[in-house]
Amino acid sequence: MGGNMIYIQLGLMVLVFYFLMIRPQQKRAKNEKEFESSLKVGDKIVTKSGLHGKIAELAETTVIIETMSGKLKMERSAISMEMSAALAKK
User: Fold this and answer.
1) Worst-scoring range by mean pLDDT, 1-5, 44-48, 53-57, 83-87?
2) Which has the closest alpha carbon to 43: 70, 82, 89, 2?
3) Distance CA 4, CA 67 (A)
4) Whole-prediction pTM
5) pLDDT tens across 9-61, in order?
6) Given CA atoms 45, 51, 57, 62 in this order, what sign does their dihedral have?
7) CA geometry: angle at 66 spanning 52 and 49, to 5°?
8) Using CA atoms, how far apart are residues 10 and 84, in angstroms rounded to an integer?
9) Angstrom distance (rounded) from CA 22 to CA 5
10) Which residues, at least 6 apart from 55, have a Cβ–Cβ distance to it below 8 Å?
């Protein structure tokens, strides 16, 4: 009886770990991938380093951003948020 209780507790700890740590990380990664695939030319964006610009060209894994000082080539994963929708609401 006591041996079974240890396995039940261990199983519950694994479930709690999954729902508190692994599942939210998977959802975050899925949302980020969807965001990266929804980007289009002309979107105003902010990078994770804080650069503001507009998407000039898109490639499979990279993007060319047009800023006030010129054009920059960056990875799609470096884009933090898209500002076109937020600016259109105002």
Assistant:
1) 83-87
2) 82
3) 63
4) 0.67
5) 999 999 999 999 999 999 999 988 888 888 899 999 999 888 999 999 999 88
6) negative
7) 35
8) 48
9) 25
10) 39, 40, 41, 42, 43, 45, 63, 64, 65, 66
